[in-house]
Each structure stands twice: as C-alpha cells, then as structure tokens.
Amino acid sequence: MGPVSDPRYRCDACGNLTRFDVTISQTTKAFHHYTVGGELQLEDEVVLSRHVDSVECRWCGHGRGVVEISIEEHGQAEQGEPDPQSSVS
To answer: What's the predicted TM-score (pTM) here?
Structure first.
C-alpha cells in the first residue's frame, strides 16, 4: 500500500481553493536518537492514526462552507470549467 495524498478542500461560501486552517490530531511512533551533545533527532517516524478535527476557510474565517473535493473537481475548478453536478436541468 502506497502513501495517501492529503485531501483538497473548497469553500462553497467564497470559492477559496488554496487557504485553509486545518487542525489535525495524530498518533505517531518514532525512533528518538540523541546525539552525544544531547540534541534529539527523530528517525523512522510512522503515523499510526490521524484525524482531521476541523477545517476553516482563511478567507471567510469559518468552516461552514468547506467541503473535501476530488482531484477531478480540483482540476475543473482551476481550469474554470463548470462543475457538471451543479448544472441546472
């Protein structure tokens, strides 16, 4: 199993795709290697669990309109293409 990319977000309130405050809680396991001089070096760090606690839009200042988007949706938004699911029938 390969690494999983971080999700992308969009604020439906203002259209922001680039600036978000993301609060994450995670549990990690790491090898702590102290040098002879007493400086800590973290090695072999592995994320055991990860949870996104909140995502807030930097432009609006809240997270009420923030949604997670797919890679396809992100590409359409950057190219200015209309979202096929938002078209009116």
So the answer is: 0.63
